[in-house]
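REQUEST ID: PR-0412
SUBMITTED BY: lab tech R.K.
PRIORITY: routine
TASK: structure prediction, single protein chain
INPUT:
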Amino acid sequence: MGTSSPFLLLLSLVMICFALGTASFYDDFVIVWGSNKARILNNGDLITLSLDKNSGSGFESKREYLFGKINVQLKLVPGNSAGTVTSYYFASKGSSWDEIDFEFLGNLSGEPYTVHTNIITQGKGDREQQFHLWFDPTLDFHNYSILWNPLTVVFFIDGTPIRQFKNMNSKGIPFPRNQAMKMHFSLWNADDWATRGGLIKTDWTQAPFTASFRNFNARACVWSAGASSCSVSSPSSRPTRHKWLTKRLHITSLQRLKWVQNNYMIYDYCTDTKRFPQGPPLECATN
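STATUS: complete
OUTPUT:
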């Protein structure tokens, strides 16, 4: 698509899109690893993933998406979960893949969970931002959402934006807009890096570790057989329920984003002068 404006891209986009609503995990997901540790319960409304010393577990969506507004409720591993990672992400295939990551890094009992986010475009990542949560995510389910449209990628927690990555393709910064991606949920061991840079290892006497997911909801353009479920139409005819395709953060949401980043961000690649001694990546100027 070259370096065309994201606004021009919007004009040619599908404005009548596939909406799953609240979906059944039976209908929309398949176990891809650790089958004896991944379970679908409550008539398809709930999945649980477990991890022990032998293996973790994971699901992926049956469908591929090219843009979507995805929401799922998570309850994370309680107690001493150091070394474990619960993941929720989009990913395409191939060596030049795109990926949008929500990863939740375990902790020692009583310490805050770390939310690790990353955006990979055309096989290039190194765009990590990390946050501490302002609540205990192991006591109850909370909403974790990803908005991915032609203008932006935004991560939300309980409706509060924590990070955005704008489409700056016109400035030569790749944006995930051409590759269809599947949704993935997983629980795995990453004690080589996840807790304090790998200083704290997984305590396997606490296993099995279990995380729960429920109420998956998607409004998305589904990619199938080389085509999108979207069709070209005038933006003026777009139904209200598809406003997510042109949604951006405005003043109130930007204020909430700033509040999170001022109070709960613990790492930002844009300010890491050791990794980027030549100066921050170009996208940092506007993201």
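NOTES: The chain has one domain: 26-224+242-271.
REVIEWED BY: pending
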